[in-house]
Amino acid sequence: MDTGTSIASVVVLATNQSMFASCGRYPYHKSCYRPKCDVCKNIVPSNPLGSLTNPFWKQESCPSHAHDGTPRCTCCFRFQPRGTKGYIDLHDANRKLCPECMDSAIMVTNKCQPLYAEIHQFYEGLHMPVNKRVPLLLVENEQLYAMVSNKSLDIKGVCVRYMESTINIVTKQHTTPEKRTRPFKLTLDNGIVSGILILFGLPRILTGFMIAHEMMHAWMNLSGYEPMSEEVEEGISQVMGHMWLECELSSSSSRNGRWSNYERKLGEFCKYQVEVSPCPIYGNGFRKAHQAVQKFGLKKTLQHMRRTGNFPF
């Protein structure tokens, strides 16, 4: 090829970069480019919706896989690529886990207690100790949703307040749902908070995020905070979960192998979800609370919330 022609071709490509998409080593004109599905390996069919793209995991797939029975992990939201190791069925509200999420999943209540103790220490380090004994219990999806009024939200944990009740907690790990729970009596021995319930089968780092979130609800109730709007209370609780994730992912213990590479990636995914959530309660609440904490600090933000029931601005 003539050298002058080669240089000219490169210049044309460089000046029209916005017209091209790359696939491997080759550029494609965007009107011609059709991505390959990361699930079935076929060309994504042309349609007005385009492909389903998970921007964090960079998984691109055919829109049909959202409703054709293709297994999807309920924690990382990745579809199972064809021909790969099967996703694990938790036999609980059609929840499935990919093998990577299953590796660190906490399946039974007693296995969760060391992590609960560590998050107690995290709160103590912020001079926010939770001094009352509040039981932490893992439950199935149906039991969790029985405790909330807004069943349209994606709930993975709840702080049970002002209630005594007998619930079924997960105490044994089985591949089928039979005989894996036993009754547990929630009592109001502190007069306000009777327990923290977390969905069983979440990976360890997501379980920790949920504990840190729900512990904030418990701390505010036990500290005498007046009732606030859902946006405010859920927003500051999301901030506490987000802070715990940041602390864990940046700590020396994390670098020394406390979390596997995948768990750290999953922790970053959890942070990403919190930050970009479109939910008016959890997403907008987090962004407002985070802005207040960044500007005024956690202590002054909490003091203002105690006085006014809202964030400082």
Uncertain residue ranges: 1-17
Total strand count, please? 13
User: What characteristic shape results from the CA principal axes?
Assistant: globular
Estimated share of beta-strand residues: 15-25%
Order of helices and strands: HEEEEEEHEHEHEEEEEHHHHHH
As a whole number of angstroms, the C-alpha radius of gyration is 23 Å
Count the domains. 2
Structural class: alpha+beta
How far the N terminus sits from the C terminus, by CA atoms, comes to: 64 Å
- Strand numbers in spatial order across the main sheet: 8-12-9
Helical segment count: 10
Mean pLDDT: 86
Helix content: 25-40%
The biggest beta sheet reads: 3 strands, mixed
Organism: Lupinus angustifolius (Narrow-leaved blue lupine)
Transmembrane segments: 192-212
InterPro entries: DA1-like, DA1-like_dom
Pfam family, one: DA1-like
Quick description:
By secondary structure, the chain is of the alpha+beta class.
Structure report:
One of its GO terms (molecular function) is ubiquitin binding. This is Protein DA1-like domain-containing protein. InterPro entries: DA1-like, DA1-like_dom. The chain has about 325 residues and is of the alpha+beta class. The protein folds into two domains: about 25-105, no CATH class; about 105-310, no CATH class. Helices cover about 40% and strands about 15% of the residues. The protein has ten helices and 13 strands. The protein has helices at about 5-15, 100-105, 115-125, 140-145, 205-220, 230-250, 250-260, 260-275, 280-295, 300-310, and strands at about 20-25, 25-30, 50-55, 60, 90, 95, 105, 135-140, 155-160, 165-170, 180-185, 195-200, 200-205. Strands 8-12-9 form a three-stranded mixed β-sheet. α6 (about 230-250) packs antiparallel against α8. The longest helix has 21 residues, at about 230-250. The termini are far apart.
